[in-house]
Structures are given as C-alpha cells and as structure tokens.
Amino acid sequence: MYSYEQLEKWRSLCSSSFYVLDTEKLSDNYRRFQRAFTRRYEHVVVAYSYKTNYLPFLCQKLHQLGAHAEVVSRLEYELARKLGVDPASIIFNGPLKTEDDIHFALEQGSLINLDSFSEIPWVVAYAMQYPEQTFRIGLRINVDLARGGVSPLQNGYEVSRFGFCVENGNLEKALSQLAVAPNVHVVGLHGHFSTNRSVGVYRQITRHLCRLGKQHLGERLAFIDIGGGFFGELPTSFGMTAAPTFEEYAEAITSVVKEELAELDHAPLLILEPGISLVADAVDFVCRVIDVKENKGERFVLVDGSIHNVKPTMHSHLLPARLVCNRKPVPEATYHVVGYTCMEKDYLLQGYTGPLPDIGDYFVFGHVGAYTLVFNPPFIRERPPVLAIDGNEAFIVRGKETLQQFIPESVYRFHVDKQEVVN
C-alpha cells in the first residue's frame, strides 16, 4: 500500500485529490480473464467495454495487451479510432445509433450488433447502395431468463428493454426485414443482459445464443457475443464471499458452446465484453482530510473528495477504505467521512469505526475503477486528476482541469450581448 510520503509527493503533482491507476493490476486482470477462456476455447475475442472507464491511457494499455474495443456511442467509437484501434476490432453496440453512425461503421468494416427495428432500414438502404459488397452484422436478442418466476435482471425487472424479443417473434421479423438486402448477412447474435452475474445465468444466456444461432443462422453463424457484466475480484467489505471466478465463468460458457455447437462444421468466434471485472480494482481514489469537527455528539471528517468521486452509481456496497497517517499510534473512534459538495447526503463513509484522522491525513478508497471517471460530474469542483503507476514510475494521465477546460468558450456562450439567430 501507499505510504504517507508517497501520497504527499503525488498530491504535490496533482494539486488536489486524485485517482491512482495501477497498470500492473489492470494488465493482470486482463491476462487472467483472457487466459481463462482461451485455455478452454480457441476462438475468443475479448473486447473491453469502453463505457466502464474510457480513460484513454487505460484503454490504450488494454489494446496493447490485445483487447478489442466495445463501444456504445459515436463518441466512444471516435475515441477508439483516435487510439489507433483497427475498425475491424471495434464492436458497435448500444440502443441508440443514428443513421450516420450505422453507415459510418459499415463503411469502416466494424461489427455492428443491431438493437432495434429503427436501425434495420438504415442497414438495408446502405447495403443496397453497394450491392457488390457483403455486410456482416449481429442482432441483440431479448429472451426470458426467469426461472421459477424469479427474474435475474438488474433491479428485479421482469422484462429487459433491449434487443429483439424471441418469444413474440421479433427476432424472426428482424431477420426477415434484413433479408430484403441479399448482401446483408446476419452472422451472429449478441446476448448482453444486466443480471445478478451468476454463473448459471451466463450458462443460460450462452445456451440461448447457441440454440437460436443454430436455428436461425445455421452454418452462417460466425460468432456468439456473450456481452459483459462479469464479477472480478471483490473486496471483503462487499460481504460477497461466493462471487464467481474468471475460471468458473469460462468453464460454464465454453462447455455450453462446445456442447451446443459441436454439430457445426466450424467453431464460431466467442466474443466477451468485460468492463467492471478488468478495471474496478485497478483504481484507487485518494483524498485529504481538510477538517474534523463535532456536531451534537457526531464526528464529521471533511475531505477534498465526494461520494460522486467514489460511488456515482450509489450502489449499496461498502468500499474498502484505509486511513494513511503521519503519526503513530492513532486512537479509534466512530465518525462520518463527508465530501466537499453542499449536499447533506455527501457521505463517503457513514458511521465508520477506525483510526481517528487528523487534518492532513489521507483516505484511500479502493475498487473505484468502474464508472467513476465516466459518471463523475464536474460538479462544484473540477474532475480530479488521474495518476498512473507503471512499475517504479508515476505520471499524470489526466490533469487537473482549468476553468477553460471545464467550461470552454468554444462550446459555451459567455456574453449575453452577442446574439446569434438560428434560422
């Protein structure tokens, strides 16, 4: 772990609270995930889910290790291209793609998984303009995963809002509409669901993908895309001791693929789109104690961070936290760690029992690599810098924002006397 002297040095570089990216941990997570699947099945693509954390340095590190890019917007697509990712290694998913997005991705040769009927006419129209070319695409399926009347979907939703429904015939309808263009070939199915992340659910999704692929695509089936959502290593503070391992996920998914698709003359590509499992525990957040006070018998420790920096999705799990002091010993006490915003609910830790901090001490919050940097708003203060640790080197990979970067004049109107009429 970090020493007080290290944190003091790093803070002097960042001039504020900051994130720390452990590149060795990130690389190890990717290698273990990728190896778990390739040991069991030869044809595997691991496409990193950009939306989880699209810090350019982090994405580039994963691409250097062999990861493809899974994107759900033109913004993310353009970032992947700026980082030098081959368009053929970009998978374009998501529920909202524009006509221009579809045409651009088809022109570039990227894989597109269609999510809704609104996208189909754009594919057909573009393909008919270029009858000499063949366009290979995928469809995202929507299938009932409930067992015994219990849904495994996120928040207990009974019906997923994504993809083409199998039960009501929408999948067959989508295939029929795409068949109007003979040079459009549906060659794969996408099965990403936000679920409870259990091994059994992934086994179930994989079986649906394989059977639907055989039924509707036959020998044309080139890939099945399982999606993401896998658990990575979890801290003990989460209280979840039985989370599946990469090996358990890989064994469940690949065994179903080999069993269900053995009759095909070829082995389809297995696509996986991990995000949280690769980055969550590779990033820490470091904030400094600014003040310690007592109100009506309650101790409050003010830090130069916020709940938005460590838990913007407001999940219920207790993040691992460690106090780094410049003195010993430190007595224990119960207190609340609160953030810099003007909101009463800005608690980073509530009713926490541990060493009592003093002004100038540091809190280090772990397991904050997923969604924090992408959800983290520039609210009241600028977004914190990001420091990357690579071996013995430490360097800034996202600097502290200035007002000009926070509210750029190229985007915002600053002067009310300058009117511009939009016809």
UniProtKB/TrEMBL annotation:
Domain of life: Bacteria
Any GO molecular function: diaminopimelate decarboxylase activity
InterPro entries given in the database record: Ala_racemase/Decarboxylase_C, De-COase2_C, De-COase2_N, PLP-binding_barrel
Gene3D superfamilies: Alanine racemase, Lyase, Ornithine Decarboxylase, Chain A, domain 1
Domain annotation Orn/DAP/Arg decarboxylase 2 C-terminal: ranges: 19-369
Domain spans labelled Orn/DAP/Arg decarboxylase 2 N-terminal: 32-280
Keyword Ion transport: no
Names of the cofactor(s): pyridoxal 5'-phosphate
Keyword annotations of the record: Pyridoxal phosphate
Annotated GO biological process: lysine biosynthetic process via diaminopimelate
This protein's record includes keyword Iron: no
One Pfam family here: Orn_DAP_Arg_deC
Protein name: Diaminopimelate decarboxylase
Source organism of the structure: Brevibacillus brevis (strain 47 / JCM 6285 / NBRC 100599)
